[in-house]
Every structure is written in structure tokens, then in C-alpha cells.
Amino acid sequence: MRCKSFDCKEAGAHDHEPIPRQSEVGLLCAICARRILEALADIELMYPELSIYAQQQGQQQEGKRGKLSGSPALIRLDVLAMLDFNANPGDGVRSIMGTLASWADCVRDDLGLVTSGSPIDILRTWHARICALPWIDDYWDEVTELAGMLRRATNQPKPIGRCFGRATNKGCGRRLYEPVPPETAIVCPDENCGRRYDGAELVKLQIQGERDRVGSRIA
Fold first, then answer.
1. Of 144, 156, 191, which Cα lies nearest the Cα of 172?
2. Rounded to 5, what percent of the chain is helix, strand, coil?
3. What pLDDT, on the 0 to 100 scale, is given for residue 70?
4. Choosing a second label site near 23 at 20 to 30 A (CA), which of 49, 64, 109, 128?
5. Which residues of the chain have pLDDT under 70?
6. DSSP string covering 133-155, please?
7. Are the C-beta atoms of residues 157 and 24 closer than 8 Å to each other?
């Protein structure tokens, strides 16, 4: 059975177009299943900073335009929508936690669970069983999109590839991001790895990242 993720494709023989990988975790391949967990981790990391970032952006815009007497600080409306638990989807922007809570409710209903906890905790705890549910393609698409929305809203650096150091006998595989500024080196943050990428090593990482992105976005 082939992976149900919308973006999953692998290059096969030269005589056919890329096709989805074989499913390994429920209805998903191992790479797409891992991307859900990475997206949830990204959301958990970036979401608390979103309101701070929104206020900072508002203050920067206020300084450029000059504040009118008695006017409130400017705050990006798209960011406010992401922070509003009850916001309705519109213009490609939706509530981050409201959307995850809706998926957590689907998990409770479809798996017959009586459980509490944050939406992210529920989605992470039952990840393997979620991957076998018939709506996994829609769930994968939305969760990875939420992480991308957060990354764009907070100007987080883009993923560049995965570390090919040897933190374990299975390799490291830690996701690495574009260096800021661009000319600086990248060091794998895994405490058991710490591989450094600069010069030829950085070019090698970029090439490997491009190969990995053939038919499958890095979230």
C-alpha cells in the first residue's frame, strides 16, 4: 500500500513519474509519519512566542508610520486569528490551537477515548493509531500547514536538510535549518551528534536536502 500523504513521492526508475512511498506507519510512510511529529513539535515550540512576535511587529510598524494620538498599537490581524481559539478559517489563516483541538476531538470520537490533556499531547500520544485512520491525509496536510503558517508568521528559518552525522548506529537525522546569516556554519543541536557543516560539508547537506525534497516538502 502506498502512503496517503498528499505530498509523498519518491523517484523511481527513470521510465515513470515519482510515486508515493510504501506505507509503514498505518497509512503513511515513515518519513511522512515523522513529519507530523516534527510539525507538532514546531507548533509547541513556536506558538508561545506568537503573541510576543505579533506585538513586536505592531510596534515596528507603528514606529515606521508614526503613532496617532490615542491609537492602539498595531498588531497583525493574521497573527491575531492564529491566536484566537474560536477564529473561523479565512484567507488561508486559522486558529492554531482551535484547529488542533478539533482534530483531538476527532481522535477521541474515532478511537473511543475518554482522555484529557492538551490537543498536542493527545495527538502525539495516539500518533501511531491516528496514522491508520481514514482521514490521515487531511490531518497530515492541515498539521503541516499549521506549522508552516507559524514559521512564516514568526520569520523562522527554513529547513535545509537532515543531519547525516552518527548520533546513533542508525544515523542522526536531526532536521537542520538555514544558517542566519547565510555565511555562518550549521551545527547539529543533537547533544549526541554536534556535527558541523560549513564549506563543502554545507554544500553536501544542501544537495542532500534537495534530494529529500523530490516530491516531499520538508515541513
1. 191
2. 45, 10, 45
3. 43
4. 109
5. 10-18, 54-76, 88-93, 167-171, 182, 210-219
6. STTHHHHHHHHHHHHHHHHHHTT
7. no
